[in-house]
Every structure is written in C-alpha cells, then in structure tokens.
Amino acid sequence: MSSLASQLKNIASLDADRLTSRTGAPSSKSYLFPAKVAATQDLDAVHALGQSGFDELVQLDPQMEEFEEELFSEAAKRTDRMMLSEEENKKLDETLARCLGRLGKWIGTMAGGKCIEWLVRRFR
C-alpha cells in the first residue's frame, strides 16, 4: 500500500470514528435527563422526543413551523457542525437564536422542554 493510500485510509477511519461518536454514541449533556439516563439515549430517540415536542408547539404557535426544516427534520439529524463552514455555522447559530427566543414563552411546558432537549443534544 502506498504512503498516500495508507494516509487516506487512516483519515477515513478517523472520520468514521468521529461520525459514529457524534451520531451513534449519545451525549450525556441534557436539559431534561440526568447524565446517566441521557447517556443511554441514541440520536433517533432524542430526535423523536424533540419532534413530538415540536409538533405540539406548532399546534400552539404556528410560527414555530419556520424552524422545522433546519432544526427538527430528519435532515437535521445529519447536521454536523464540524463539517459546516464558518458561514454555515453562523447561519445555524442565528436560526438557533431565533428558535430559542421563540421557545422562551414555552420553556415551562413539556413540549418546550422536549424541543430544547433536542437542540441541546444535537446542536450543542
């Protein structure tokens, strides 16, 4: 195996490990759950929780729907801040700030808490 091929293989392996740890291994930082519970939840479970809270909030506040595609969709599960450009991260930060501002009045509700849980766990 050439030196370049070996280097590319190592990079691919490191990248695969990083992606697995980001999306497969759960984070223990949580808004709703103790660290031990949070560590047992995978990305799909946390997304389902956030999506259910989001669906409830859209019924109460239809303007929340503007955040669905970027923050609560299936595609949002694949958003990796490490792979975004500085400009894309800035845009995501702005969207998160607007969403959190809108969520403020719902923070005491379970639906609001579910949304915040997803945002904290996915977008850090």
UniProtKB/TrEMBL annotation:
Organism superkingdom: Eukaryota
GO molecular function, one term: snoRNA binding
GO cellular component: 90S preribosome; small-subunit processome; t-UTP complex
Keywords, ordered alphabetically: Nucleus, Ribonucleoprotein, Ribosome biogenesis, rRNA processing
Record's subcellular location: Nucleus, Nucleolus
Classification via InterPro entries: UTP10
Major localisation: nucleus
GO BP annotations, alphabetical order: maturation of SSU-rRNA from tricistronic rRNA transcript (SSU-rRNA, 5.8S rRNA, LSU-rRNA); positive regulation of transcription by RNA polymerase I
Subunit comment: Component of the ribosomal small subunit (SSU) processome.
Physiological role: Involved in nucleolar processing of pre-18S ribosomal RNA.
Stated family: Belongs to the HEATR1/UTP10 family.
Protein name: U3 small nucleolar RNA-associated protein 10
Organism whose genome encodes this protein: Trichosporon asahii var. asahii (strain CBS 8904) (Yeast)
